[in-house]
Amino acid sequence: MIRSQLSAETYAAIDEIVRIGKRGVAKSQEANRRLGVPNVYSINGRLYYETPTGELSTTDPFPDRQRATEPWDEREGSA
User: Fold this and answer.
1) Contact, 58 vs 49, CB < 8 A?
2) How far is CA 12 from the centre of its chain?
3) Domain segments of the chain: what residues?
């Protein structure tokens, strides 16, 4: 059996960082949905866009490279 070289405190710190990161991602995804901005995922190197119904599509919803009409409020994405 291979012993881990990381201490229990290190694992606890990593768990906390991951928890904070997951919360931030979830808040950002919800803000995107509320603003009508599709969440984009890369799965096996291919881009997938989340549709308003929650399904994933490979079709780019902004084929003409439209820009958002509302300015980004940094507070929207803050954790």
Assistant:
1) yes
2) 23
3) 8-63
